[in-house]
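Box 4.2: Ligand-aware structure prediction
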Amino acid sequence: MINKQLKRLTTVSTALCLLLISFCTLGSSANGPYVERHYDPIPAAPRTQSVASADEKSAGCLSCHTDTDSKSMHESPGVILGCIDCHGGNADVFFHEGEDELHVLEEAHVLPSYPSDWNFPHSANPSGSYTLLNREAKEFVRFVNPSDLRVAEDACGACHLSTVQAAKRSIMASGALLFGAASYANGILPFKKYIIGEAYDEDGGASAIQGPPLANPDKAWEEHGVLPILYPLPTWENVPPGDVFRVFERGGRNLTNLFPETGLPNSLGLLQRLEEPGRPDFRQSNRGPGTGGRISVPVLNLHKTRLNDPLMWFLGTNDNPGDYRTSGCGACHVVYANDRDPRHSGPYAEVGHTGLSKTVDPTISKEEEGHPIKHSFTRAIPTAQCMSCHMHQPNMFVNTFLGYTMWDYEADAPSMFPKEQKYPTDHEIYEASLTNPESGCCKRALV
Ligand code: HEC
Ligand code: HEC
Ligand code: HEC
Ligand code: HEC
Ligand code: HEC
């Protein structure tokens, strides 16, 4: 289990165009302490069962969650499921008046391995959770969101298997287009047939993902237009740098051999030959591809930047209007309060845009941001829900459908740039990046 803590963080996202400039790279928020837990395996939800059996699997839960919007999360009474079929937990634990509620909750719920990162016992989606879902135990992932793609096969697969598998292969989960285009255009990979995409196994490990079963698998591409397999991004330490990024390396006046002189401190006299820091370089580095033990900066940036937004595998950032959402099927089918305009949100507009809940479940705070509006799936997905991801270029700038357009960096420059050049501090750049993932905001000092 300890390995989980060491698991590399792989939020993968960035913008093709910005790869060519430079980056505002946000580190993950500090990781809270790990708590060792014993998790009982959670059986898969059954396709059929009696109503009595389903009720039994909800009984204890309902002693606190005395009411909820759709008991089975489905409006249709034809779907027979108990709470623990989806969430797991212990439905034999009942709360009685006068007992310590938190203690009973701990008996009934599946508990997180990273309680402080989840703000336990608060149940709102934590803001800026980055790759927390990858570090967390699969049993807790299933407890907070049975529709997360790491666990949906068990929670939903009995009835929706083909949809679950298609959702995992979806471009909205893999981001294959961005990784394909960015790696080709930046000289990381030499071909245009895309082979890189994001996918995780149930334990949150980076995983390859195969295309659907085909009549003629050898001709996946030619006859079916299907990519046969997508691999995870390699770890950045292992990838030799492509030639193209030499241009962005520090060159400067004191250009020297970049191979390390192990054991010979200052053998090249570099300490005496100081460069003025932070000034534009007038020469490119003299390093050849893969030399000098250097790593691939573009691959590192693909791993770390967030311009493509967390994909379907992760929670939204849950910190601003427009960013409240869960992961997996629920990213579309569970509506959060994100947008007050009825043209974007339809009937959900009246709930506001601050991620507050309107559930009848008495346990859920109505003042805490980061809850779904209701405990219910819908097919009536508002545009605003799609827009929680589709608001910048790499995942298709769909805001045009709402009548918005991108800033034009030249024609709109007078409105975008401050009259006086600003020099934001590192802290100001960090703060600006938290609400505006577009790295230009720091570069242009729009803080
Ligand atoms: C002792 C009372 C109690 C019992 C019993 C109980 N819950 Fe809860 N549950 C709560 C409270 C209170 C919250 C909300 C905590 C908060 O947000 O402050 C909650 C939150 C949740 C959440 C949201 C968790 C998250 O982090 O997003 C889920 C899911 C949940 N309960 C499912 C269940 C299931 C399933 C059962 C039965 C196995 C169950 N609960 C039994 C009190 C209880
Ligand atoms: C079909 C599977 C399914 C069943 C059955 C189900 N839930 Fe859920 N539940 C979900 C999903 C999916 C979410 C996650 C929504 C999210 O993260 O936005 C959820 C979220 C929750 C939450 C958190 C809500 C919030 O506002 O943060 C609670 C509490 C909860 N469920 C309780 C229950 C209880 C109690 C039952 C049984 C009466 C139950 N669930 C049955 C799928 C289910
Ligand atoms: C026991 C079978 C079963 C399980 C398990 C199940 N579903 Fe469903 N689901 C159904 C059926 C049946 C419908 C169609 C209901 C209808 O036509 O009204 C449905 C419909 C839906 C819909 C469309 C919206 C709606 O309510 O009609 C969504 C979204 C959905 N399910 C998501 C999920 C997710 C996500 C899970 C797992 C967390 C899940 N379901 C688990 C049987 C199931
Ligand atoms: C969790 C984030 C997320 C949500 C929510 C989301 N999308 Fe996407 N979508 C993406 C990403 C990421 C891509 C692929 C971008 C890439 O690889 O460059 C994408 C791609 C697409 C594409 C393909 C575009 C193309 O040119 O191939 C369509 C169409 C689309 N989304 C529609 C929708 C609709 C409709 C909704 C709402 C019902 C929605 N999306 C919700 C993240 C999301
Ligand atoms: C990118 C957004 C998105 C994601 C992610 C998504 N869906 Fe859907 N789903 C939709 C849309 C849009 C519809 C069509 C709604 C309509 O017009 O009836 C739909 C329809 C459905 C239906 C109804 C099908 C029917 O025949 O009417 C089910 C069931 C369903 N989805 C289940 C799931 C499950 C299970 C997952 C996760 C494995 C999932 N969806 C993930 C957007 C999404």
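In the box above, the bound molecule is heme C. Residues 58, 61, 65, 68, 71-73, 81, 83, 85-87, 123, 145-147, 155, 326, 330, 334, 357, 359, 361, 364, 371-372, 375 surround heme C (ligand 2) (CB under 6 Å).
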